[in-house]
C-alpha cells in the first residue's frame, strides 16, 4: 500500500516509478528539515534530483515533456513539497512564475526555447528587488549594448531566491531609456555572483540574499520587455506560490504537534483529563488547527481554479478574459488577507497543548512560525486588505504590478 504522500503524487498524475522516487526525496527532506533550518543550508542535489524527475516541467503538456498539470494541481504539489521543507518550495517559486510566462508566450504563438530547457530539467531563479531608498519603480540594474551585437547586464539585487540553485536567472533590468526588461541570464556566466548573505530568521536555507551582475553577457532573445499594462496574472501566480507554501507549513505544523500530543504521557495535575490526547481543551486547539489548514487549502484551491479559468479563456480570446483575470486576482488577495493571520495564530496557539518540552530546539517547532511570518512579510496583507477595501468602495482596480522603494 503506497504511503499517503505517494498516493497524492499518483493522484496528481505522476507515474508510479517517479512518485516513489519523489516520495523518497521528500521523506529525506522532511527528516532533515530541523537541521536544514539550524544550519541554513539545503542540499542542492535535492533540487537537481527533483528537477531530473520532472518536477519543474509538470505544467508542460506531455507532448512537450511535461505532465500537463492544471494550476490547482501545481499548487497542491507545491503545498506537498512545503510540507516536507518549505525552503524548497520557495526556491522553486521563481521557476514556476517563469514557466507560466513562457507558457503564455507559447500560447500566443511564439516559439519559446526556454520551455525546451525546462523539459530537459533546467531550473530558473529570480533577481528582481534592489535594496536602498530609491524611488519605488526605479530599476538600477542596467542593460548595455555591446559592439558585437550582444548586451551586458550590471547591477546588484537582493532577495534573489532560488538563484543559487538555478541554471538560469530572470533579472529585472532597465535599458538606457528606462524601459524595463525581464532578462534571462546564465547562472554560470563569469559575470554572475551569488552571495549567501540572507540573514532572515525564517526560510533560512533559500539563499534569498544578494545576486551581483558585473557585465554578464546576454543575447537579444534573452531580453523580454515588460508591458506596463500587463494583466495581474503574474502577480496572482507569485502570491499563490507563497500561499501554497504557507498551507504546506501549516499542515506540517499540525502533523508535528498532533504526533507529540498522541505520544505525550506527561500532563498537568490541574488538567481536566489524565492525558493530553483525552483533554477537551487540547482537542479543541487541534480541531481549530485542522479547520484553519482545511479552510486555507480550500481558499488557495478556489483562487487557483479561478486562475485556471482565466488561462482557459485567454487561449480563446484575450479580450474576453479580462474579467476572469481580475476575479482570480481578487480571490488570491482574499486568500492572502485571511490565510496569513489564520496560520500565524495557529503557529502560536499549538504551544498551548503541552509544556516546555515543546520548546526543545531538537523539535524545531518554532521554525514553522518563523517561516510563516517570513513568507507573509514578503507582501504584507495589510496593504492588500486596504486595496481590496478601496476597490469595493471606489471601484478601483487592484495593482497588477507593484514595487517597493521610496514613495515621493
Write down the CATH topology of the largest domain: Butyryl-CoA Dehydrogenase, subunit A, domain 3
- Number of domain units: 3
Q: Compute the gyration radius: what is it?
A: 22 Å
Q: Which class of the largest domain in CATH terms?
A: Mainly Alpha
CATH architecture of the largest domain: Up-down Bundle
**CATH homologous superfamily of the largest domain - what is it?**
Butyryl-CoA Dehydrogenase, subunit A, domain 3
Q: Tell me the β content.
A: 5-15%
Largest sheet: 4 strands, mixed
The CA-CA distance between the termini, in Å, is 61 Å
| Order of adjacent strands in the largest pleated sheet | 1-4-5-8
What global shape is seen? Answer: globular
Task: List its salient traits.
408 residues, alpha+beta, Butyryl-Coa Dehydrogenase, subunit A, domain 1, Butyryl-CoA Dehydrogenase, subunit A, domain 2, Butyryl-CoA Dehydrogenase, subunit A, domain 3, 3 domains, 4-stranded antiparallel β-sheet
Question: What report would you give on this structure?
Answer:
By secondary structure, the chain is an alpha+beta fold. The chain has three domains: 4-122, Acyl-CoA dehydrogenase/oxidase, N-terminal domain (Butyryl-Coa Dehydrogenase, subunit A, domain 1, Orthogonal Bundle); 126-225, Beta Barrel (Butyryl-CoA Dehydrogenase, subunit A, domain 2); 233-394, Butyryl-CoA Dehydrogenase, subunit A, domain 3. Helices cover 50% and strands 11% of the residues. It has twelve helices and eight strands. It has helices spanning 4-12, 16-39, 44-52, 71-84, 86-91, 93-107, 113-119, 233-263, 280-316, 322-349, 366-377, 381-394, and strands at 124-127, 142-145, 151-157, 168-174, 180-186, 192-194, 211-218, 223-225. A four-stranded mixed beta sheet has the order 1-4-5-8, covered by helices on one side. The protein has a four-stranded antiparallel beta sheet with strand order 2-3-7-6, with no helix packed on it. A hairpin with a 5-residue loop joins strand 2 (142-145) and strand 3. Helix 8 runs antiparallel to helix 9 (280-316), helix 8 runs parallel beside helix 10 (322-349) and helix 8 runs antiparallel to helix 11 (366-377).
